[in-house]
Amino acid sequence: MHKKIILLFLFSWFSADSYGNDFELTPNLQLAYQELMQLKVQHARQLIAQESPKNGIKIWLDDFADMIVLFSSEDENEYEKLSDNEDKRLDLIKDLDENSPYNRFVQAEIKFHWALVKMKLGHESKGGFNAISAYKLLEENRKKFPNFTPNYKSLGLLHVLIGSVPENYRWITKLLGLRGNIQQGLKELDLAINDKLVGKEAKFYQLFVQSNILTLNDKERQEVLNFVHKNPDNLAISFLGTSISLKDNKGEQALKILQNRPTGAGYLNLPIFDIYQGEIALQRGNYQQAIKSYQNYLRTFHGHSFQKDAYYKLFLAYWLNNNPEQGLAYLNRIPSAGKKLSEADKIAQNFYENFQKTKIYPNKNLLKARFAFDGGHNSEALNLLENLDENAFQNVVEKAEFNYRKGRILQKLNQNNLAIPLFDRSADLCVGQNCHFGASSCLQLGYIFQAKSDKPKAKLFFEKALSYKKHEYKNSIDNKAQAALTEMGI
After folding, report:
1. Domain edge (last residue) among 194, 210, 226
2. By CB count within 10 A, which of 100, 121, 280, 344 is most buried?
3. Over the range 376-397, which residues count as b (16 or more CB within 10 Å of their CB) and which as e?
4. Rounded Cα gap, residues 349 and 433, in angstroms
5. Is residue 320 pLDDT above 70, yes or no?
């Protein structure tokens, strides 16, 4: 299961209906749930503490609050203190009314919470078993209570995730009894979206999946903005809108959402917004602001995620700002910082290791073009590369990156016919090389021919994207390529 996907489990939704006294969503707990959804954890805990310890909803919300804090803090010591709560709470739920559709559903949600935390802290095998258990509980619940719509929001999500697993790993999912189907999962999420109780969470999941595994269209882009604007006091949805906008190369839109996010003492602190602020500043060429944002992240966040990436970006910001010596001081902090779990941290570690061997700095034009493109400043990005060709670059990887970067810019400018030969060239240059530009180029070629309804060529390039080995974006590119093939019925 791709790591970038784990963030979306943080924002689970629960039905306002009650099935007997064992699972009673009282007004107090309903308010507590709403506070948790907005990431107002402290107030939610106060409300939860007033309820009966034998209420299954209270047990679930206790667990939900703990997992939000653990996931966001990445505090290993706190994890060790709280980890026994998983089994304790599951045992309590099992003793409650088995004829309630909430029984297995709540068990599955607790399993999901701990899957999140375990995978975030690097305990991937344990987290994977949690996710498998949750899936089986949800499938069992679906058979027993087919009209219980909250079940379809989590089950639909899992069906999409499992359906995007690359073909060479599918024997594992089959062996474990996991069945994925992207179209089925999307239909289940749609069913949940239409439910008056779970619609908001299902929409959250749908948009997250659409942006991270599938592709966004203009209608869905507008839905992202509408979702944010209709929920101005929801920090989780502000996070979603910022994340999707950055992924969709809309840096200015991301900045606007980030600046308008709800703040105050009641909200959970999310240092990830400093990372986002730094990214936007790099995209704009505002290196001093980028430095300030990344330094603030390192000063305030004591977990492991994006520590290596922050030091790497500080190196780049200082170097682009003509202060290479200061940049090198940050580059040398990478090996001892954080963990190499996220793609961003892996890239930072790999750059450090290669730099130690070669002492070769990145090409400034390519780097500036990359950041400009990432922020949606396509004309500026094209100007940086317009008068260059392969001969301007030192090695095969830089040549491949040049072709890929220019191809992506032209693709965004709706000049696919000019982009196609550039992607082809990048793919050829990367054969036998440990770089992602070939796989990334093939993925984009697949999307181009998919949009042209040229199924044979789209299939060819999506499968070629899967064929590249051992590059930094292997998981995410493989997931997207496989998801596209599955969408096409292949």
Report:
1. 210
2. 280
3. bbbebbbebbeeeeeeebeeeb
4. 18
5. yes
